[in-house]
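How it folds:
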Amino acid sequence: MRPLPRSRVPRSRFPLRRRPAPTYFFGYSPLRAVRVSGHSMSPTLHWGDWVLFRRYRAPGDLTVQSNDEFERALRNLSSELTQKVVLIARLGPSGQRDLMQIKRVMKVELVSENEIGIWVEGDNAAASSDSRHWGHVMPEEIIGIYFRRYHLG
C-alpha cells in the first residue's frame, strides 16, 4: 500500500493547540489533595488525613506601589490569610520547591520597608517546625488555602 501524497492527507478540523504550562503543583485543577504526615497540626489535622487545598496566588509585586496602595494591599492580605490553614512550598535539600508544609497563618506584617512577611505556626507547638524556627514566610511560598478535610475508605 502506497502512502497518500502530502496534499491528500486528511487534516483535522481543529488544529493542535499548545496548552499553557501548568502552574506549579496544581496543574489545571483549582484543588489539590494532600495527605497529612506528622503531628504539627494536631488536634486540627491528624496523621493520615486527606486535605483539599484550593490554589492561592500571592498578589503581584508589592514593592513598587505607593505607600497608600501598599498599606491597603497589606490590610487585604492580612484579612484574607490570618488564622487560615495554608499549604506552603519551601525549598528542599535539592533546591527545588518540594518541601510541602501545612501551617496556620498567625499574622501578616511588614518585615522591612515594603516587604511583607507571613508568620506561620503549627497547632501543636511541641511537634512543629515553623516560623519560630525559620522566620517569616514570603507570600509567594503560600500555594494553597485549606478547603476541606476528607477521609478515604
Notes: The domain at 29-150 is CATH 2.10.109.10 (Umud Fragment, subunit A). The chain has two helices and six strands.
